[in-house]
């Protein structure tokens, strides 16, 4: 694939840069199409991204519809057919500014002013369209083979909410149609797995703008799943000596000033509330509350490690564009814990946390994940607690522990918590990009800020070390992950309805009621479908909507014989006694079988 650089020379494109160049060129072609259709358009930034490309554009009062996006894509295809040569040129600053002024590119002019050290600027031109850009690009527009506009959204100029909201138009581009077709197939799979779609169909949760965006409410079926996950992880933690607590969802501003969240995390917190001369905030995390629980009484080295756990309600001010069902909301419940220990106990406590993470992943058959040691960016003095010695000590300590434990990990700069480095376990879902599910953070900072101490063997007072850890992450996000992995077909122990009883007709309703009662008495979550519908309709509803593990189809033959006909998710039907079926299902529930 030939590409052209800003100095005008043409060369073969390195293979690992092909998609980037294709998508960068697609952004220019899209901008040219937009300018043809909307002459008033004023362009901001238009980069290639990991998953496609976009351009932020000021269209004045013009609002775009889906039909408008289709017209832009249609115009792009015309430009591709025109096979316009893409040519670079370079201008000194004064001439470059003049060119942008003539073309009324106000955002480009402002961007040039930000680049104070630049004495010249490079541009690429195709037909009547000119864009300030460092390249490289395809040599002709016809080389753009496969692309699609996907959506529009809002975006602030320079990502600053004090600036004007622009229209962001997104698209994807690939080397060929086969790659685009594969992407579209993956998108279809993502739509089918989308936990918001499945959650609505199964009646798991709901949202309503009157309650507030990003504030999901769990319905009875969804709360059943939620409670099962809570019981599961608490059982695991109790077996490891965790002590569970409950703390309030708000705290004083002074609490978060003490912890450092007020200085380093305030933009993610809801605004303060004033009451009786004191300021309160909804908590974004519950570390400070657990610090105060530890500080509630004196401690000896004999008390450590002390493991405090909580399924904690937290609130973060996420922008509306990032909200996604229960995967990312403004309210969520963390599977949180704080482990207070001596420096000598760090290794064993990190090891126990890692063992718990991997045990949970085995229980849920999570196999596609990777471990990341997230470090601070030393140049960022605003985001991170400013103590180089503490950071160097904490990062090296966690690095050494993970290495000694034989855990393979990569390192990423700038992903640490503001108070310390962390181990992040990133999972790759069935569709879409990976995200962090579990985390273990090493903290020398907050214990010192809260003046936490313990009396050591020699009688001296020392400061404990704290591990912040979350195994399921948040129950909300973990549930969203499970919904999308299973397409709502939860294992029996987790399914909101474990068995659905389907009488074939009114004649077998009495027998169906008796079967339902016995299943319920055995502790099985069972629903009797006594609607006056044909049995085929009932089976489809149970399979495709409720996604139940088992359906009991009860006709005259079953009622007369006193047995049941069991239909599973595979569509296979088995005749058996009710007693044998109850034994089978209760075993699956007790053992949490997948």
TrEMBL record:
Encoding gene per record: thrS
UniProt keyword list: Aminoacyl-tRNA synthetase, ATP-binding, Cytoplasm, Ligase, Metal-binding, Nucleotide-binding, Protein biosynthesis, RNA-binding, tRNA-binding, Zinc
InterPro entries recorded: aa-tRNA-synt_IIb (IPR002314), aa-tRNA-synth_II (IPR006195), aa-tRNA-synth_II/BPL/LPL (IPR045864), Anticodon-bd (IPR004154), Anticodon-bd_dom_sf (IPR036621), Thr-tRNA-ligase_IIa (IPR002320), Thr/Ala-tRNA-synth_IIc_edit (IPR018163), ThrRS_anticodon (IPR047246)
GO molecular function, one term: threonine-tRNA ligase activity
Protein name: Threonine--tRNA ligase
Principal location class: cytoplasm
SUPFAM superfamilies per the UniProt record, alphabetical: Class II aaRS ABD-related (SSF52954), Class II aaRS and biotin synthetases (SSF55681), ThrRS/AlaRS common domain (SSF55186)
GO biological process: threonyl-tRNA aminoacylation
Pfam families named among the record's database cross-references: HGTP_anticodon (PF03129), tRNA-synt_2b (PF00587), tRNA_SAD (PF07973)
Gene3D superfamilies: 3.30.54.20, Anticodon-binding domain, Bira Bifunctional Protein, Domain 2, Threonyl-trna Synthetase, Chain A, domain 2
Lineage: Bacteria, Bacillati, Bacillota, Clostridia, Eubacteriales
């Amino acid at each position: 694939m030939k590409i052209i650089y800003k100095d005008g020379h043409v060369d073969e494109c390195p293979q690992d840069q092909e998609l980037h160049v294709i998508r960068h060129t697609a952004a220019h072609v899209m901008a040219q199409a937009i300018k043809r259709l909307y002459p008033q358009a004023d362009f901001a930034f238009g980069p290639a991204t990991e998953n496609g490309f976009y351009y932020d554009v000021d269209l004045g009062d013009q609002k775009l519809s889906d039909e408008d996006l289709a017209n832009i894509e249609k115009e792009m295809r015309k430009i591709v057919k025109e096979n316009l040569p893409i040519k670079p040129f370079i201008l000194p600053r004064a001439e470059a500014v003049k060119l942008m002024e003539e073309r009324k590119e106000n955002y480009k002019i402002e961007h040039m002013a930000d680049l104070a050290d630049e004495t010249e600027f490079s541009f690429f031109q195709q037909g009547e369209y000119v864009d300030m850009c460092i390249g490289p690009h395809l040599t002709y527009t016809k080389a753009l083979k496969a692309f699609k506009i996907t959506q529009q959204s809002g975006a602030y100029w320079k990502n600053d909410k004090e600036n004007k909201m622009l229209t962001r138009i997104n698209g994807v581009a690939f080397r060929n149609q086969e790659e685009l077709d594969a992407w579209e197939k993956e998108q279809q799979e993502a739509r089918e797995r989308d936990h918001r779609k499945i959650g609505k169909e199964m009646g798991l949760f709901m949202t309503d703008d009157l309650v507030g965006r990003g504030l999901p409410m769990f319905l009875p079926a969804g709360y059943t799943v939620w409670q099962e996950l809570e019981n599961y992880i608490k059982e695991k933690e109790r077996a490891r000596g965790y002590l569970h607590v409950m703390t309030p969802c708000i705290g004083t501003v002074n609490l978060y000033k003490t912890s450092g969240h007020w200085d380093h995390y305030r933009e993610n917190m809801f605004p303060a509330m004033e009451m009786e001369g004191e300021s309160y905030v909804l908590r974004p995390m519950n570390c400070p509350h657990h610090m105060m629980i530890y500080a509630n009484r004196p401690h000896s080295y004999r008390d450590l490690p002390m493991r405090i756990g909580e399924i904690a309600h937290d609130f973060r001010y996420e922008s509306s564009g990032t909200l996604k069902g229960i995967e990312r909301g403004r309210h969520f419940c963390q599977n949180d814990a704080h482990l207070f220990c001596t420096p000598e106990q760090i290794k064993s406590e990190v090891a126990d946390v890692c063992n718990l993470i991997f045990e949970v992943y085995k229980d849920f058959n999570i196999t596609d994940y990777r471990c990341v040691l997230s470090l601070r960016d030393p140049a960022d003095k605003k985001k991170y607690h400013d103590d180089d010695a503490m950071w160097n000590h904490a990062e090296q300590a966690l690095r050494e522990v993970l290495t000694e434990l034989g855990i393979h990990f990569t390192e990423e700069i700038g992903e640490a918590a503001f108070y310390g480095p962390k181990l992040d376990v990133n999972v790759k879902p069935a569709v879409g990009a990976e995200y962090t599910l579990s985390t273990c953070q090493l903290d020398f900072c907050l214990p010192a800020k809260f003046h936490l101490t313990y009396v050591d063997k020699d009688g001296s007072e020392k400061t404990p070390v704290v591990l912040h850890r979350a195994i399921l992450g948040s129950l909300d996000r973990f549930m969203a992950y499970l919904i999308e992995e299973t397409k709502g077909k939860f294992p029996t122990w987790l399914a909101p309805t474990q068995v659905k009883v389907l009488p074939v007709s009114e004649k077998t309703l009495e027998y169906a009621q008796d079967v339902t009662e016995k299943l319920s008495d055995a502790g099985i979550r069972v629903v009797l479908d006594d609607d006056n519908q044909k049995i085929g309709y009932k089976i489809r509803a149970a399979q495709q909507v409720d996604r139940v593990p088992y359906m009991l189809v009860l006709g005259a033959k079953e009622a007369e014989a006193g047995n049941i006909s069991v239909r599973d998710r595979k569509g296979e039907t088995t005749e058996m006694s009710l007693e044998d079926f109850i034994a089978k299902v209760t075993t699956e529930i007790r053992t949490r079988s997948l």
